[in-house]
Amino acid sequence: MHTVAVLALDQVIPFDLSAPIDTFGWARLPDGRAPYRIKVCSVAGEVAAGAFTVRAPHGLEALAEADTIIVPGTAEPTLPLPPGVAEALRSAAASGTRIASICVGAFLLAATGLLDGRRATTHWIAAADLAALHPAVSVDPNVLYVDNGQFLTSAGAAAAMDMCLHMIRRDYGSAVAAHAARMCVMPLEREGGQAQFIVHAQPPAPVGATMEPLLVWLEENAGRDLTLEDIAARAGTSARTLNRRFREQTGTTPLQWLHRARVRRAQHLLESTSHSVERIAAQAGFGSPTAFRDRFRRVVGTSPQAYRKAFRGAPAA
């Protein structure tokens, strides 16, 4: 039987803790046997978990006996690791144990040095902080999870279930993983990555920037078929000068800024209307449905149809 040790540190995020327990707990072999033994371990016997307290029956010694270690996120992931945790994780890694983090648990795993030189992910809202705090880690904020073989990292807690199902499939095959997915009432694979959940804010212009009125005009007219020359004429300058000044003040080009504004408008229409993709492409200012689909996938990470299916609210009864 495969042993999974879930490491619960103080102020553990409750769903980060329950996601792997539920996902691995639902797995069943064809003969009905449970393939995983789950152990919750901690430095102390009890761990705060938001509105309640978790009693962990195992100590750090359980990490040495585990085949897989799961590191959930905590409310303060940038705090130093408790004594003995980094050493226990490094020792387990040296013996070949698979180690996976959930959400901001990537900060805890990165603090051990085990992610140095490797690609990793975390919740998109914390990705920039992880990259800044641990520059030796290659942070990808657009994916649901990253599998480096021995080390895995996932985005938010829901993405942890995607990652756990992936590990079940690696361990026991697609049929066992599909059964666990059905019991968890979720697909075995989700289309798109974390990018579809990111709020794509435009790069802000400095306070008092000369481009600020132009940015407002671009936002209001994103649905029009604008060219760089149109934007330069509005700004009263040449296209070359506009590009230089625009990049200096926003960090991007006028057309890149305009494309993101159009994608945001398309996201709103996909979420709030039943208009066809062709109509939304025109309303958002894209030259063709093909150009719209291509740009949308590059920015959001999934197709317009898949985005609508995931994010459009059900009509009121």
From TrEMBL:
<dbReference type="GO" id="GO:0043565">
    <property type="term" value="F:sequence-specific DNA binding"/>
</dbReference>
<keyword id="KW-0804">Transcription</keyword>
<keyword id="KW-0238">DNA-binding</keyword>
<dbReference type="InterPro" id="IPR029062">
    <property type="entry name" value="Class_I_gatase-like"/>
</dbReference>
<dbReference type="InterPro" id="IPR018062">
    <property type="entry name" value="HTH_AraC-typ_CS"/>
</dbReference>
<dbReference type="InterPro" id="IPR052158">
    <property type="entry name" value="INH-QAR"/>
</dbReference>
<keyword id="KW-0805">Transcription regulation</keyword>
<dbReference type="InterPro" id="IPR002818">
    <property type="entry name" value="DJ-1/PfpI"/>
</dbReference>
<dbReference type="Pfam" id="PF12833">
    <property type="entry name" value="HTH_18"/>
</dbReference>
<dbReference type="Pfam" id="PF01965">
    <property type="entry name" value="DJ-1_PfpI"/>
</dbReference>
<protein>
    <submittedName>
        <fullName>AraC family transcriptional regulator</fullName>
    </submittedName>
</protein>
<dbReference type="InterPro" id="IPR018060">
    <property type="entry name" value="HTH_AraC"/>
</dbReference>
<dbReference type="InterPro" id="IPR009057">
    <property type="entry name" value="Homeodomain-like_sf"/>
</dbReference>
<dbReference type="GO" id="GO:0003700">
    <property type="term" value="F:DNA-binding transcription factor activity"/>
</dbReference>
<feature type="domain" description="HTH araC/xylS-type">
    <location>
        <begin position="212"/>
        <end position="310"/>
    </location>
</feature>
